[in-house]
Design goal:
Chain lengths: 399, 265
């Protein structure tokens, strides 16, 4: 199926006459330098360091032709990491051809799709696989090969997806932080489907804005992006084996924007061989505009995450309350600050987060990110990060 | 549809009545409204517009910071305009796009697309008094002018850069506006707003907007090439330089939705 996608791209390119005067090309890039400082050495083997340096490069190449009715985007991603060889990785975030018509678009190739409205997790965001090595807080995703037909109607936008080629979750290696005691062994990965990673997944989504409401409904059938883990022994060493099941899921994401309030909800119902369950993330954000007669805005957030599977859920937010505050200075440098806390009602663990960013000059941006974990219960997934408290400084340079 | 026709007939009738009335005793409120309606009528029928703008932000010390934005705007009959703004500079927000459906009555609908996250965020329009991109222009300063957004009072005639001007006070009807009033200088010949004083919630003079180098497009529509906003309280200023105004591009409603927002470049 992957091949079909490539042939489609090739055919699309060939069938379009490329008059030189019509072709638009643009190249941009971002280089991120990241310094991480940990409060202590990690709790597992090989995590005996307290600092890490990492550099990521993300160029973007864009071509547009046929009176802007066709475009091609190529966005590779490269990271080099001082400590963790698994975190040094390359990915194609996007390599896609988009054809536009008046009321539909066809998007073919490797792409990234985002669904969702809430802050602390996005249950409905099922299309792309997580790029876990990129960190906990950013929700970075791997590119997904797809054929996506998008129809624009008066009653909303309908997106139909054919997803050939599944991608496994990435994992930090032996030397990486933010992992469990056991390392996932990639060679042991198994699938429920006899077609393995070649299973073709399908999805559909309807989304619309009516008055103050933004609503999305989706259906997904195919390989579950989140695997189940099992401890196995390999060469006399305990490792984790990931098994990807088939699943079917329906879900809704909705936001009401009323005066100072953003009311947010994401609810899914998933049917997989181990469980049939509901999960939800519900909450609000209330914003005080122009606080203290300045131009700064202060938003207060609160969300609750629920998973019907309870403590055994392979989700971090199965019965968790998240609260936070977002400060936007609305100054020339677009300075902003987000602080938050997540409290787990089942395991009574806490994690605190801090994120601030600010533009420097015309082409730089600086971000400071910090997290502190406090978890005692070994059954809580967060306990794996108990010694991974960190401060990270990131400098982005845009070209 | 019938209702719409009826309303336009009524509007036309009231405009006629107003002009007839002006020969007789007209209250300052009526005259202020009539002038403002004339501004709207004379700029009616531009259908759609493409334009690029460069914002030069200056702080108290005179340090500059640049924003570059391209805009697509669609005139909507009997409602506010639809617009799509695409950010090119500074680089970290390149590809960010802003979709706005303004309404003559009630809150506007606004969405922001963040390309790094591939995420479309609905924004509260309660935020209208906030600064746009850290500039001295607020969201409401950049929104389309609609009659129902203000009540009016004519003050006096005054000599101005473009000859003779009407001076009209405009009082925002929306409680979320950052202003108690705007004082507008409108030239008598072409009904162009050439200067606006903004008064903050405490009714002290906050900002002055001066619109310069008006050019006429399609033989009808006047657009300023430069708009200078000076904040008297913070001593900061923002210059807006408009280039490449293009009218009649065949834009339709289908150019303004979440799909076009996500792929705006």
């Amino acid at each position: 199926m992957k091949k079909i996608a490539w042939i489609a791209i090739g055919a699309g390119l060939l069938s379009q006459p490329l008059a030189a005067n019509e072709l638009f090309f643009e190249a941009t890039a971002k280089v991120s330098t990241e310094v991480s400082l940990f409060s202590q050495q990690g709790q597992f083997n090989n995590q005996d360091y307290r600092s890490n340096l990492s550099v990521a490069l993300e160029p973007e190449f864009f071509w547009e032709w046929n009176d802007a009715s066709d475009n091609l985007t190529f966005k590779p991603f490269f990271r080099v990491d001082q400590r963790d060889s698994k975190r040094s990785h390359a990915d194609i975030r996007e390599l896609s051809w988009v054809h536009l018509a008046d009321d539909w678009e066809l998007r073919t190739g490797v792409r990234k799709v985002f669904w969702g409205v809430t802050e602390y997790q996005n249950l409905v965001d099922v299309i792309n696989q997580s790029d876990t090595v990129e960190g906990l807080s950013k929700g970075e995703k791997l590119g997904q090969p797809m054929l996506n037909l998008s129809l624009v109607r008066d009653w909303g936008i309908v997106d139909l997806f054919l997803l050939p080629g599944f991608r496994e979750q990435t994992y930090v290696g032996d030397d990486g932080r933010f992992r469990s005691g056991l390392v996932v062994d990639k060679d042991s990965t198994s699938y429920q489907s006899s077609k393995g990673s070649k299973h073709v997944d399908v999805a559909a989504r309807w989304s619309h804005s009516v008055d103050v409401y933004d609503i999305g409904l989706h259906w997904y059938k195919g390989t579950n992006r989140a695997p189940q883990y099992q401890v196995i022994s390999k060469e006399g060493k305990d490792v984790l084996k990931a098994n990807y099941q088939q699943m079917e899921q329906v879900g809704i994401d909705a936001q009401a924007t009323i005066e100072n309030w953003l009311l947010k909800s994401e609810v899914i119902y998933q049917d997989n061989p181990s469980d049939n369950y509901f999960a939800s993330q519900l909450g609000f954000e209330y914003t005080y505009y122009g606080i203290q007669e300045s131009s700064a805005d202060l938003g207060i957030l609160m969300e609750y995450g629920y998973d019907q599977r309870g403590k055994k859920a392979n989700a971090l937010l199965q019965n968790d309350i998240g609260i936070g505050a977002r400060l936007a200075l609305n100054d020339t440098q677009s300075s902003s600050l987000l602080i938050g806390m997540i409290h787990d009602l089942d395991f009574h663990s806490n994690s605190f987060s801090f994120e601030a960013d600010r533009r420097i000059g015309e082409n730089w941006k600086a971000t400071i990110r910090a997290r502190v974990f406090s978890a005692d219960n070994k059954d809580d997934l967060v306990s794996n990060f108990a010694k991974d408290d960190y401060v990270k400084v990131i400098f982005d340079r845009y070209f | 549809m019938k209702f719409k026709i009826l309303t336009s007939t009524l509007i036309a009738a009231s405009v006629l009545t107003l002009s007839v009335n002006s020969a007789f005793a007209e209250t300052p409120e009526e005259k202020g409204l009539a002038i403002s309606e004339q501004i709207k009528i004379r700029d009616d029928g531009w259908v759609d517009m493409l334009a690029s703008m460069k914002m030069v932000l200056r702080n108290k010390q005179g340090q500059e910071s640049i924003r570059e934005i391209r805009m697509k705007v669609l005139e909507v009959a009997d409602d506010g305009d639809k617009s799509l703004s695409i950010f090119d500079r500074p680089r970290d927000v390149k590809g960010t796009a802003f979709l706005s459906f303004s309404h003559t009555q009630g809150a506007d609908d606004q969405w922001l697309y963040l390309p790094a996250l591939k995420r479309v965020k609905r924004i509260a329009s309660r935020n209208k008094s906030g600064p746009f991109m850290g500039s001295e222009f607020s969201f409401e300063d950049l929104a389309s002018f609609e009659i129902a957004k203000y009540t009016y009072k004519y003050i006096e005639d005054q000599a101005c850069d473009l000859g003779q001007c009407f001076v009209v006070e405009q009082y925002p009807t929306d409680k979320n506006s950052g202003y108690t009033k705007r004082v507008v200088w409108v030239d008598k010949a072409e009904y162009r707003m050439i200067k606006t004083d903004f008064y903050d919630r405490k009714n002290s003079l906050l900002k002055t907007l001066t619109s310069l180098d008006y050019q006429q497009y399609k033989g009808k529509f006047w657009r300023a090439s430069t708009m200078k906003m000076v904040n008297h309280q913070s001593k900061k200023s923002t210059d807006l330089q408009w280039v490449d105004y293009r009218f009649g591009n065949g834009l339709t409603e289908s150019d303004f939705n979440k799909n076009t927002l996500k792929r705006a470049r």
